[in-house]
Amino acid sequence: MFEDKIVLTGVKPTGHPHLANYLGAIKPAIAMGKQAKQHNMFIADYHAINAVKDPAVLQQGIKEIACIYLACGLDTDKSIFYRQSDIPEIPEITTILYAYTPKGLMNKSHAYKASVDKNREAGKPDDDGINMGLYTYPTLMAADILAFDTDVVPVGKDQVQHVEIARDIAGAINAHYNKPLLKQPEFSVEENIALIPGLDGRKMSKSYGNVIPLFAEPKELKKLVFAIQTDSRPMEEPKDPEGILVYQIYKAVASVAKQQEMAEGLKQGKLGYGHIKNMLLDAILEETKESREKYEYYMSHFSEVEGLLENGAAKARPLARRTLERLKDAVFGR
Ligand code: TRP
After folding, report:
1. Where are the beta strands (DSSP E) in 109-169?
2. CA 1 – ligand 1 centroid, Å
3. How far is CA 191 from the centre of its chain?
């Protein structure tokens, strides 16, 4: 489906990913590298500085994200893997895009509107604490995408609007110069990804504090898994597995055969909550065993990772430069 497409994936280096990030974003992005004609995978560190002002925290975030993607199997021969801030053509393209980006389009951006709403709720002025980076970030994101003649951007639902903004800006520029200077990207939302609940049954999300971090230490992991909400029904009571949170999370990580084993055990009253929590713990450890070891390796050999990122930038820059030159020729009439 993506064999003849240029696909681009961006990830913000803010915070250690959790299991739902892994299953819903990291794994599919890595698979994309094996499928697409070209796959660009980048760490959106210019986006991160809008929020993260401590360089040590930022570096740690970049390091973790880079090591996680590599540990989980990103193939850097197939995916062009780079840090956004290593590609100066991207902010240059952004500056040109600004001239064609209606301010009203930025006013309507979800991320900005959400920050304004938060301020209003707190009784603060609308733009309190909102910097221009956050306000204009859909334009930078458009440059991330348009720089590489991207066909498809796989995103979560919350990012669809931003890909549409990239389409709109590209369309406006193409119409103005009456030629196809920028490729208008499509978004792709994976509808089949199961919603993975967190420890309290709500969607797993950092903002709810209910997450299972991808590479939590086994001891910490055990503590978290045993904190998953259950009720006080005795083991012998037959239970509908679908109503049991541990089982819902298990479904996201265990093989079909193992899921059936747990489902049967619950229906027949042969498995108690302690059993199924241990089963979940084992499944998570098994799913992440190899990548956890690789993660630790990359974290302690970061100069190797640095080399891979520099290679990626060396591949990405000429592509972005081509787009930038095409734009400058048209805009400045060179
Ligand atoms: N805005 C995206 C997020 O918050 C990250 C991102 C930045 C991105 N630039 C991108 C995603 C380009 C896809 C394409 O998750």
Report:
1. 152-154
2. 22
3. 15
- The finding on whether 152 has its CB within 6 A of some atom of ligand 1 is no
| Cα 311 from chain centroid (whole Å) | 22
Residue 6 in 3-state DSSP?
strand
Residue 149 and residue 166 in contact, taking contact as beta carbons nearer than 8 Å: no
For the chain, list residues with pLDDT below 50. none
Q: Determine if ligand 1 sits within 6 Å of the CB of residue 27.
A: no
Q: Is 39 in the pocket of ligand 1 (CB under 6 A)?
A: no
Q: Which pLDDT score, from 0 to 100, does residue 191 have?
A: 77
| Shared-domain flag, residues 33 and 113 | yes
**Residue 217, domain member (yes or no):** yes
**pLDDT per residue as tens digits for the range 184-216:** 999 999 876 667 899 999 999 988 999 999 998
Find out whether the beta carbon of 246 lies less than 6 Å from any atom of ligand 1: no
What is residue 190's predicted lDDT score, i.e. its pLDDT? 81
Q: How far is the CA of 225 from the centre of ligand 1 (A)?
A: 30
How far does the centroid of ligand 1 lie from the alpha carbon of residue 156, in Å?
A: 10
Cα gap 324→290, rounded to integer Å: 41
Is there a single domain that holds both residue 133 and residue 264?
Answer: no
Whole-model pTM over 0.85: yes
Distance 127 CA to ligand 1 centre (A): 23
Ligand 1, atom 8: nearest CA belongs to which residue? 10
Helix or strand holding residue 310 (H, E): helix 302-332
DSSP state of 182: S
* CATH assignment at residue 120: 3.40.50.620
